[in-house]
Specification:
It is built from two helices and 33 strands. Helix content is about 15%, strand content about 45%. The chain has about 425 residues and is mainly beta. The strands form five sheets. It has a 17-stranded mixed β-sheet that branches. Strands 19, 21, 22, 24, 25 and 26 form a six-stranded mixed β-sheet that branches. It has a four-stranded antiparallel β-sheet with strand order 30-29-32-33, with no helix packed on it. It folds into three domains: about 210 residues, Jelly Rolls, CATH 2.60.120; about 90 residues, Immunoglobulin-like; about 80 residues, Immunoglobulins (Immunoglobulin-like).
Length: about 425
């Protein structure tokens, strides 16, 4: 009886193990199938499956119907294989989705964007999208756009592009003096902005559009002219003007955007040398009582696609003490409530790690010295500090120095020291006999 009970228990245990194994195998098969059809972008996909996706679809449909009512030549969804733009650069986490796909994938530099493709940036992420050499847009962090391509207008001969901004920040530039310029129509949840530069203008048209789900949309024009429409009403923006649309209201009357902030330090092209630890570099700009905040950007490239710092600051200074050797680019803009001004001109500075002592050549006088003084000359690395027997002297731009050395009767120990900008030092010494 006892043996029969043990056999029964063993059979039940074996059956349980087999059942659990079959469940796990079935589970892994299901997960593999899901992973094959939906390879990436899970978190973003969940994010898009809520109100954001509905907002995109509703906005695209509304503007498509509006364009048809105006007699526009928009393509139907999915029509054609011609690409509209290209992703030039990405910073941190940037996702893209084809119009016919479900899952989001990583947006790689160089990828083409077709009709109805979407691009999304997450926290501390940016993307640069270019239509051609003269026309491009910068997408700020936590932004979502859908790009639509419009056919070329045969009457006015301009290339036509179109995009929907559901949320986030969009900066753009449209080149001037083009025979077949880009007509850019940017749609937010509550407005339409039409941008086209004049062929008579040499300067590019530059703009900033900021969409916040709760507070509305702000459209700022830094150069050129733009038309903003909301609720059937149109306002015309000129250079350095902005308008705001909240809720279902019409665009506000144009007002001046915040003035450009003046950079103070470091100067453009300034070089900082260090030996072991990088210096604590402080960036400074002019304070303005008319501004509520400042927007500072620091990057490794002039296009600001490789951002190191992108901060809103309350103070007119910022220090960074952990930058590696290399070139850096920085710019600053001013904010007044929801409005942001134009970025300042880009400044570049360079950090150089230097652990090599400077070269030093000293022309010591022929001995013995029969006078109370003698001329001591030499050459060192330009920018170095020269010390002769503890006395600091000045070099010229070529590193040449000249010093009247006092000579005492008897033995004179002369030590010449050169210290470069990184703190490396070189020495040269000689015993000079004074006989007089």
């Amino acid at each position: 009886m006892k043996k029969w009970s043990e056999n029964k228990f063993s059979r039940q245990l074996l059956e349980g193990i087999i059942s659990i194994s079959l469940v796990l195998i079935f589970f892994f098969i299901i997960m593999s199938v899901l992973n094959f059809f939906f390879p990436s972008g899970g978190q973003v996909l969940l994010f898009m499956q809520n109100e954001k996706l509905e907002q995109v679809n509703a906005t695209v449909k509304r503007e498509y119907d509006l364009s048809l009512s105006r007699g526009g030549q928009n393509e139907p969804v999915g029509a054609g294989k011609e690409w509209a733009a290209r992703v030039v650069a990405t910073n941190n986490t940037v996702k893209s989705k084809r119009s016919v796909d479900i899952a989001w994938k990583k947006a790689d530099p160089g990828m083409r964007l077709y009709n109805q493709d979407a691009v999304q940036t997450l926290d501390r992420s940016t993307a640069l999208i270019r239509f051609d050499d003269q026309n491009e847009i910068d997408i700020g962090e936590n932004s979502l756009i859908v790009i639509r391509r419009m056919e070329q207008d045969l009457i006015f001969k301009e290339k036509r592009s179109y995009m929907v901004v559901v949320d986030g920040e969009l900066r753009g530039r449209i080149g001037g003096a083009q025979d077949d310029g880009v007509y850019l129509e940017v749609t937010t949840p509550n407005s339409v902005t039409r941008l086209q530069n004049s062929t008579k203008s040499e300067a590019p048209l530059e703009f900033l559009i900021n969409v916040e789900a709760e507070s509305g949309s702000t459209i700022t024009l830094f150069s050129g002219e733009a038309e903003v429409e909301a609720q059937g009403e149109i306002v015309i923006l000129e250079q350095n003007q902005m308008t705001r649309i909240t809720g279902t209201n019409a665009p506000s009357a144009p007002v001046s955007s915040p003035k450009m902030v003046q950079q103070l330090y470091p100067a453009d092209g300034q070089v900082f040398c260090y030996r072991d630890l990088p210096p604590r570099l402080q960036m400074r700009w002019q304070t303005s009582i008319d501004l509520t905040q400042y927007h500072l950007q620091l990057a490794r490239d002039r296009q600001f696609s490789n951002l190191i710092l992108d901060e809103r600051l309350n103070e007119s200074t910022f220090a960074h003490g952990n930058l590696s050797a290399g070139d850096y680019f920085w710019r600053i803009s001013g904010l007044k409530n929801e409005s942001e001004g134009r970025f300042s001109p880009i400044r570049r500075f360079r950090l150089i790690q230097d652990q090599d002592p400077p070269f030093l050549e000293v022309d010591f006088p022929v001995q013995p010295i029969t006078t109370t003084s003698t001329e001591l000359t030499g050459k060192s690395e330009p920018g170095s500090q020269i010390f002769i027997s503890g006395v600091k002297i000045t070099c010229d731009d070529n590193g040449l120095f000249n010093y009247t050395l006092p000579i005492s009767r008897g033995t004179n120990v002369v030590i010449v020291e050169a210290v470069d900008q990184a703190g490396n030092a070189s020495f040269s010494s000689k015993i000079i006999n004074g006989v007089y």
